[in-house]
Amino acid sequence: MPNTKTEYPAPRILIVDDSPSEVRRLIERLRGTGYELSVALDGEQGYRRAVAIQPDLILLDVSMPKMDGLATCRLLKATASTASIPIIFLSSGNDIDQRLAGLLGGACDYVIKPYDAEEVMARINIHLTLARQIVKDQSHPDSETESSGATGDEDEDVILVNAALHYVSNNLRTTISPEKLARLIGTHEKKLTQAFRRLQGVTVAEYIRRKRIDEAQHMLAHTALSVVAIAEELGFSSAANFSSAFNRQAGITPSLYRMHEKKKHKDISTVMRSDMINDEITRSSADAG
């Protein structure tokens, strides 16, 4: 049940589901325990309403028209004013990949339909309590976290690009077209491309290529994975395709890049060992004097 003391107002819950009849019992249960409720019938409407009313928690269906729950979640987490709102997915699908996509997209919980209303109530109360504790910690005088001062007037391009960057960073192994990426965050390719050109100075496809090669450089320098394994890990169709893409961006083959990085680290280690020996000689001389 919500806290009845004056310390906290009645929690506001936003339910986003295109079939209200499926969550009617839960809605009745929530209303009966004093929660303030708002209902949206699709992801697009749910996103706009979340930005407008700033609910304390969102119950979000996955399969919906216009914008599905996964895309809605990505946008909510990329929007500063709604990023910290706990999101619980409600879904009739029991696919593990879908559940992982929801959790990796920023949701704090995932409940499979049909569900027991009391279980959902318990999860809601747990996540509301955790969210309150986070707010309390952030408002402490010693906390270094500052309020973002975000409002509902955030730059739409920034929100779309942030959502896309987060998805790409978590899915570098997946080959994804700009069209599909746009769909995954609830927009269309032309709009996302324009946002990327404005904020990143490159197209979506070029950003993804650069990001994958940047990650390849890190893996070549800091792991023992073979070039073939790195190519597979980053979703390239073949080692040859990977080498060509790497050479175009870095101006050197993956093997030569790794060789140069190893030599660089070896030289640094040699210098460090020399400095340590000199320090030891200096200390010994001082002790002898």
Give a short overview:
The chain has 289 residues and is of the alpha/beta class. It has helices at residues 24-32, 43-53, 69-78, 96-104, 117-138, 156-170, 178-184, 189-199, 204-222, 227-233, 239-250, 254-288; strands spanning 12-16, 36-40, 57-61, 87-91, 109-112. It has a five-stranded parallel beta sheet, with helices on both faces.
Q: At the third CATH level, what is the topology name of the largest domain?
A: Rossmann fold
For the termini, the CA-CA separation is 76 Å
Helix content: 55-70%
CATH superfamily of the largest domain: Response regulator
Gyration radius (Cα, Å) is 25 Å
Could you please describe the fold and organization of this structure?
With 289 residues, this protein is an alpha/beta fold. The protein is 58% helix and 8% strand. The protein folds into two domains: 12-138, Response regulator (Rossmann fold, 3-Layer(aba) Sandwich), CATH 3.40.50.2300; 202-289, Homeodomain-like (Arc Repressor Mutant, subunit A, Orthogonal Bundle). It has twelve helices and five strands. It has a five-stranded parallel sheet, with helices on both faces. Helix 1 links the parallel strand 1 (12-16) and strand 2. Helix 2 packs parallel to helix 3 (69-78), helix 7 crosses helix 8 (189-199) and helix 9 crosses helix 11 (239-250).
Sequence-ordered SSE layout with sheet pairings:
Layout: E1 12-16, H1 24-32, E2 36-40, H2 43-53, E3 57-61, H3 69-78, E4 87-91, H4 96-104, E5 109-112, H5 117-138, H6 156-170, H7 178-184, H8 189-199, H9 204-222, H10 227-233, H11 239-250, H12 254-288
Parallel strand pairs: 1-2, 1-3, 3-4, 4-5
Helix pairs in contact: 1-5, 2-3, 3-6, 6-8, 7-8, 9-11, 9-12, 10-11
